[in-house]
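2024-03-11 09:14:02 INFO worker-7 job=invfold-0412 stage=load source=structure_tokens
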């Protein structure tokens, strides 16, 4: 299966590059043989417009360009119709070369919902409603759906022909992975080792079987973060640690209940509860982010990503990509603001080099 795996490229704002420099990376990605380009979304630039710009840059190199995708858009910032309109437009302009990833973001955190003036909700119900509605809209259906969180009655997306955009669901835990298998076209994973990928696929399969779907038709996608620095491997380690901290630890020291949710639960499922508890203690004692990054355990970094010299990057990526349909080189630069830092990762993990190690 790995021989036919799609190898994509993931770019994000932490690279601190101009839009023109990002266009150059997209053009170079085509030349290096990458098969897709992916973008996350937060509360900064609109990633649908960024995805369209990335596709247009690749179309400068080859006719029709290469597919582009978002993994993932937090649903709390848009209505289902707004997602369908935005994603459908990118699909139409790019001639169907767009994948829309939807995720819960921080919806499971009370603070995130409070900022929207909303009370606590069932995140699973939220994602069921969004995926159901958006998928029907982009497939040209008139939607009459009343869910526990979202409702849309007798509405249709006015894009002709229907954009039929694939919908991936950002998923980590067993219930969300099962929901991806039940409803979505793919599951967008993050920060996994191969064992976690295998477990995730089994959860997706359970959901697919519940809906009488063929599990092989549901794509398993993942960002794999890579940071290379041939001049200073410690600089690469610190950069990858800083990229990991916000996910593995979360924005604040979690309660016992919060440890069972989101990324914190995900990292603890992989066996890192003790290491993360020690870092929490450092935070409780007033440690800075730089101090946390210095102390961040190398075993966690090596389990879910790669830092070091360019020579070892492709092999590490190949090992981490086992079991995936879409394996995405998520670029982490040890020199933010300098395009060479990103280019070094892209060249070290070119699809050709990765496939030599599969």
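2024-03-11 09:14:09 INFO worker-7 stage=emit residues=358
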């Amino acid at each position: 299966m790995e021989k036919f795996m799609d190898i994509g490229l993931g770019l994000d704002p932490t690279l601190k590059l101009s839009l023109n420099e990002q266009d150059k990376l997209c053009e170079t990605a085509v030349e290096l043989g990458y098969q897709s380009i992916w973008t996350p979304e937060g509360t900064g630039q609109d990633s649908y417009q960024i995805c369209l710009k990335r596709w247009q840059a690749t179309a400068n190199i080859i006719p029709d360009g290469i597919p582009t995708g978002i993994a993932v858009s937090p649903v709390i910032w848009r209505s289902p119709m707004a997602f369908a309109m935005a994603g459908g437009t990118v699909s139409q302009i790019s001639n169907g070369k767009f994948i829309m990833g939807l995720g819960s973001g921080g919806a499971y955190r009370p603070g995130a919902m409070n900022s929207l003036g909303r009370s606590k909700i069932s995140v699973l119900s939220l994602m069921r409603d969004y995926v159901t509605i958006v998928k029907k809209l982009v497939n040209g259906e008139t939607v009459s759906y009343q869910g526990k969180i979202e409702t849309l009655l007798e509405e249709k997306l006015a894009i002709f022909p229907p954009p039929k955009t694939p919908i991936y669901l950002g998923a980590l835990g067993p219930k969300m992975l099962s929901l991806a298998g039940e409803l979505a076209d793919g599951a967008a994973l993050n920060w996994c080792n191969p064992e976690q990928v295998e477990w995730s696929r089994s959860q997706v399969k359970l959901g697919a079987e519940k809906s009488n779907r063929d599990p092989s038709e549901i794509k398993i996608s993942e960002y794999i973060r890579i940071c290379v620095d041939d001049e200073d491997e410690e600089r690469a380690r610190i950069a990858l640690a800083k990229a990991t901290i916000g996910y593995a630890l979360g924005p604040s020291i979690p309660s016992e209940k919060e440890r069972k949710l989101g990324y914190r639960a995900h990292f603890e499922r992989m066996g890192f509860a003790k290491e993360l508890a020690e870092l929490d203690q450092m935070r409780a004692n007033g440690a800075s982010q730089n101090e946390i990054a210095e102390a961040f355990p190398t075993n966690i970094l090596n389990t879910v990503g790669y830092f070091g010299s360019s020579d070892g990057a492709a092999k590490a990526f190949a090992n981490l990509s086992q079991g995936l349909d879409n394996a995405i080189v998520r670029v982490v630069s040890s020199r933010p603001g300098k395009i060479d830092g990103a280019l070094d990762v892209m060249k070290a993990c070119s699809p050709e080099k990765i496939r030599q190690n599969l």
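2024-03-11 09:14:09 INFO worker-7 stage=report msg="The first strand starts at residue 6 and ends at 10."
2024-03-11 09:14:10 INFO worker-7 job finished
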